[in-house]
Amino acid sequence: MEHYLDNSATTKVSEKAADKAYRIMTKTYGNPSSLHRMGLDAENELRLAKKTVARCLGASEDEVFFTSGGTEANNLALFGTAYSNIRRGKKLVVSAVEHSSVIEAAKRLEAEGFTVEYITPRSDGKISPDDVEAAVDRETVLVSVMCVNNETGAINPVAEIFEAARSKNPSVVCHTDAVQAFGKTEIKARRLGADLISVSAHKVHAPKGCGAIYIKKGIRLVSRQYGGEQEKKIRPGTEALPSIAAFGVACGEFDIDENYKLISELNSYAREKLSAIDGVVFNSPEDALPYVLNVSAGRVRSEIMLHFLEERGVFVSSGSACAKGKPSYVLGAMGVDRQRADSALRISFSKYSTADDVDALCEGIAQGLGLLAHR
Question: Can you list the domains of the chain with their CATH numbers?
Fold first, then answer.
């Protein structure tokens, strides 16, 4: 039996979303840009999906643009903002624990002559509004801080951070990577005070290869791609309609309050059981998003424990899937020592997770510590 607890890496596609993707591929397979009836039918599906995603973001349809995923959305936010504001300033303020698609984009901009100030989290894993405010100056064109950390689940006070940033520089563009928060907690653009928001489909039970970026009216980005009129030239190219339509269906299935309650109970159950295992310590703060739980398992390296659990049908991660097993810079920035970071496991839940999954996980970790700790 499989016990899948790696939902921050990707999620199982819901049946309704999968059915929609299949129908688009086999029935409504016209190009949304074609002028005939099949093209019009496809365009209507595109508009319906955009309407649904926009509603979930508290945005208007013309503020939502589909991308290939969260990585492309994050790259578009950073490069697009930097290039469009280059005459105003060449400084970015970015949290040091962002997803690699933000960190690597920031490093590339540094290589091109931009200044990037990286804000480290406090001991609770969160970015402080005071620290961001201190870093922002008149040359700052962008502040980028994620809503929820993808490795620890730490929830950043994004609205307060953006308010603090604008108190120093009212012209600063504010971006948040909401990939791990979208569909799990309320993400409303106006409430967050965000100018740009990145989201991804495959984290919310839709297929891979699709995401979206919210761009507030009046915010100008330089496009990273050229070649067509699609998405108002922000993201040209024929839209991946099967994934986009499925994304819309998955967003329509959101039951944020009910799922949050269920996942909170499951997280508490997991914390209780894991606390009873000698050698397990928690890296996620107590008030982290309950969908993510990061722990360190004694002296057993993450990769060894991960494969030990896999043999028993339990699937977790050693950190961000995009890191492919490299040491966690997120835990390092939080001040977690190397040995503890080397044994870290990320457990991540979805609406399909159960207490049986947690039981299998805890049993596997306990066995693993007993068998592997002294090798």
Answer: 3-12+255-372 (3.90.1150.10), 15-252 (3.40.640.10)
- The pLDDT assigned to 335 comes to 78
Q: What are phi and psi of 72, to 5 degrees?
A: -65, -40
Pick the catalytic residue from 56, 174, 251, 322.
322
- Residue 157, classified by CB atoms within 10 Å of its CB into exposed (0-12), middle (13-18) or buried (19+), is middle
Q: Which residues does 179 contact at the CB level (< 8 Å), separation at least 6?
A: 70, 99, 146, 150, 198, 199, 200, 203, 211
Amino acid of residue 134: A
CA-to-CA distance for 111 and 123, rounded, in angstroms?
A: 30
Q: Is 322 a catalytic residue?
A: yes
Is the predicted pLDDT of residue 229 greater than 80, yes or no? Answer: no
The first and second tokens of residue 254, run together, are: 């959101």
**Residue carrying the six token digits 């993201």:** 235
CA–CA separation, 56 and 252 (whole Å): 8
